[in-house]
Amino acid sequence: MSYSIRLTREALEDLQRIEEFLVEQAVQHGDFDLPVHAVDAILNEMRVLERNPYTCRKVGSNPLERELVIPFGGSGYVALFEIISDHEVAVSALRHQREDDYH
């Protein structure tokens, strides 16, 4: 079975926020490949959701709401998503692992 992955408007805004932060870090530290590598890592790891969304950890009381941990560097990112149907997963938020919570 294969799932399609849909990013909500909020998740796309989170991805843009993360990328903007990484661009600022790249300018400060001279690592201009950082933003591209981080966004690529996030999008590549989300492919896990196409085949195995149930392997991700549950969030709260809804068994269909889950988190995907995305390793990157010394920490990484977390994608909050919900399994909508037998064919669709909706990513609703993205955050860095060191952020307090989803926005």
Task: Indicate the topology.
Elements: E1 4-7, H1 9-29, H2 34-45, H3 48-51, E2 57-59, E3 62-72, E4 75-83, E5 88-96
Parallel strand pairs: 1-5
Antiparallel strand pairs: 2-3, 3-4, 4-5
Helix pairs in contact: 1-2
Give a nutshell description of this structure:
The chain is an alpha+beta fold and 103 residues long. It is built from 3 helices and 5 strands.
Structure description:
With 103 residues, the chain is of the alpha+beta class. Helices cover 36% and strands 35% of the residues. The model has no long low-confidence stretch (mean pLDDT 92).
Estimate the global geometry from the Cα principal axes.
elongated
Largest sheet: 5 strands, mixed
Radius of gyration: 14 Å
Distance between the termini: 31 Å
Which structural class fits the helix and strand makeup?
Answer: alpha+beta
- Could you name the CATH topology? YaeB-like fold
* CATH architecture level-2 label: 2-Layer Sandwich
Question: Key features?
Answer:
103 residues, YaeB-like fold, 5-stranded mixed sheet, 3 helices, elongated
